[in-house]
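anyone seen this seq b4? input:
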Amino acid sequence: MATTERERTSRPPRAEVRERLLQAASTLFSQRGVHATTLDDVAKAAGFSKGAVYSNFESKSDLVITLLTQETEGALGALEHMMLPGTPLSDLPAAVRDAFAPYAQVTADDFTLMSEFRAQALADEAVMAAFVDRRRAVLDTLRGLVDVVLQGQARQVTGLSSDTLARLLIDVALGSAFDAPATGEVGPGEVMAEVLTALTRTA
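predicted toks r here
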């Protein structure tokens, strides 16, 4: 039967379909895990048929990689818009605490999803390649921010290279999210501020 004009106009735009599928996948992957979630589950949660998934993504791996990329771009955007460059060294710990404060719960949620991506990467080479690429992008962006904020003097100021300091701050953020059930509602910004206070004390 030919598709009527009414049916065509009642369909949501392709961009909306894709976004709803990604939102559904994000929620299900976080709640159930990637392995336990089927494409049928994602389609139903988004309010579509399974065909809608295959119209937007080549496979489950493609869906995972797309969501991984989207989540990473959000994190990169947040880092790039932090108003830290130009902050006096004495004010840096407090500035870092304030900059990361809005992302405390977001970090915990993202960690759950990123943990699922990491687990899927172990079983899927394509996902692993995307995972490595995106995590390196986060490290490179944070390293660049460290270089700008500390004016290329990271080792002189903290005793650590900008690369090591960036990796340490990422580890603090991930560790805070991982241990949140045991330590309470401690945002990564709080711990980062304490680390920076200790590292810059002599400077």
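The chain is about 75% helix and 0% strand. The two ends are 76 Å apart (CA to CA). kinda curious what u guys think
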